[in-house]
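worker-03 picked up job from queue 'complexes'. Input manifest follows; two sequence lines, order preserved.
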Amino acid sequence: MTTAADAHPPVRRDETDADLARHLLGLGDDALILCQRLCQWITRAPTVEEDLALSNIALDLLGHARTLLTWSGRLDGTGRDEDALAYGRRDREFTNVLLAELPNGDWAVTVARQLVYSHYAELYYGALAGCGDARLSAFGARAVREVGFHRLHADRWTTTLGLGTPVSARRMQAALDQVWPYAFELFAPDEVAVRLGTRDQALSAVPLRDRWERRLTEVLTGAGLTVPEPRWRASGGRAGLHTEEFGPLIAELQSVRREFPGGVW
Amino acid sequence: MTSTAVPVPPVPVPPVPDPPVPVPSLPVPHVAPRLSAREVRARVDALPDPELPVIGLGDLGVVHSVGPGRDGALEAHIMPTFLGCPAMDVITSAVREVLEACGHPDGRVRVVLAPPWTSDRITPAGRDKLAAHGIVPPSASTGGGPARLPFPPSCPHCGSRATRPESLFGPTRCQTVGRCLSCHETFSQFITL
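worker-03 finished. Artifact:
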């Protein structure tokens, strides 16, 4: 994983930015952990097309994670590269939202998780494309086109299951109800998000919450589904407090590196 | 302590080898001639795409530029089709080899994200090569707008206009799969991005 990192636009050696580093670490961890979850579907998806779809989506997310983690490691002053960050941290040091680590569940749960994340990611990367930092803007412009396809994929499946059989509609609704409490963390106005938003509004996802909700309401209404109104909201991921299922996920992600430290091919 | 002297057989003296004939050293080590940026660009353009060897990097539109960097060393700027494109590492090392072979051992390869690559960058010749290989070329891009389903193309097998998207994702990240409603065959289309 080193060639692409070398090729990214150089950051001045003295350039550190704790807030931005922390923010990019969270975004990178979201992409990395969701990628790992999607990879668990490979050879188990309902059809070969969906096997390809989820592995291709995971591949895009891995590309996003590599870029974001590389930049984060350069900006936080430690000089850690993408590998050090992905394979060298303990579970409490990961700052992904809890949504990303939710177990795959049945197909409807995976579709619901993709729906929530890809609509958010399309809005956020689209906003990032207009930010004042040339590197982040280029990344946003590039990534928004990719997550747009992920969003199309999730929209189509939500509609297919919602308008399918009574069983598929019931399970899709149950999946939405299960996943919805985890959506709010994506837009949470934590300290870093607020400070970055003051610096450049395009860096903060907080203002995108309403548009996200409108878009999802449109998709769910068209699919004959109800927008959930959860009575609780999950939080803690950005602070490194994870769900019980996170440990085994990280153990699997880092297993090869643990067995063959420093191994290359 | 006494000992009986044992006769020692004479040790054969090995023949002294002739001194080596001095070989005149070559005047200078061989160095590849330093080609111009334009000539290097032509060689980079001609490199086949690792996943779709029917099309060259130039026709695919991923070569942004080849020219001198700030310090004068030659730089090749490559645009990834997708951020997670698994072929990027192979492409960067292939381009680096071209730079070396063209007399630019100090040359660099940079992956640039701006401007973003879009499928509109595929050249007319590249589109013809894809079509000849049975892959439907991409339709016009959305110009940065929201992603949408590809416009149904004609079936590359039977020419029927009655086709529908089968899967948004195909055998490589940059292909989608369509199905013909007339001949019922599936086909690949290069993604419109």
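worker-03 released lock.
The two ends of chain A are 10 Å apart (CA to CA).
Chain A touches chain B through 35 residues (CB under 8 Å).
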